[in-house]
Design goal:
The chain is α/β, with parallel strands linked by helices and 253 residues long. The chain has helices spanning 7-26, 44-56, 80-93, 115-133, 144-158, 186-196, 212-226, 230-236, 248-251, and strands at 35-40, 65-73, 97-102, 137-139, 167-170, 175-178. It has one domain (7-251): 3-Layer(aba) Sandwich (Rossmann fold), CATH 3.40.50.620. A six-stranded mixed β-sheet has the order 3-2-1-4-6-5, sandwiched between helices. Helix 1 packs across helix 6 (186-196).
Length: 253
Amino acid sequence: MEKRCFPAERKRIVRFIKHVGRGINRFHMIEDGDHILIGISGGKDSLALAYALSERKKWVPIDYSLTAMQIEWTEFPISREERRNLDNYFDSLRIPLIRRKAAIFPDSFNGDFNCYICSRNRKRILFDEAEELGIHKIALGHHLDDIVETTLINLFFRGEISTMMPVQDFFGGKLQIIRPMCEVPEREVERAGKILDLPVVPVRCPKGGISDRLFVKDMVKRMARKNKHVRENIYRASWNIKTDYLPLHLQEK
């Protein structure tokens, strides 16, 4: 699926894959013999992640298996052409692609809907599929900007200090979410997506254009005009905690 690249473009792709590998290696995300389920939305991030994980297998001295899974919301079906383009893409990567249909507004929501609830619903479906396949690691296409924005969303709108972790255990460690692009800026993912001509499926989201994430993304962009390192600083803050300036009960832990 990769189109012919000029040498400079190829260097950017190689750099992108190496930067994905940097996050993988730093947090020991993938080990020899792992089977990883990649959550596929159809957007540039998850498609670029699939490419990087597939290509990286040719370089590293370990072997791991990849399976991709796309959740197709019944309320927002993709077209036949979009489905065919994705199938061809994953065939070219030699990654099996599974599709599961599900309701974006299940009855259990009782009419409530927001980005957090939607994300939790998507994770539940991925968890069920991983358990059925006997897979213990799920890779998601969140990049550095996603982590930064989530940190600020949780602080501003939920009154808590928390973030997306590069590696996150669930159910006592029986399942693990990994985010291999945790140290890759969104602009780098976008460049890679354009060079690779990824078969991106347009976002079909009932909150498209009005979400808290878009509000925070714009705010971070404006802050970055003042300090170009603002994204990296917010990302690193989770590992640079000054306990002397925390409440006493947290200092004692």
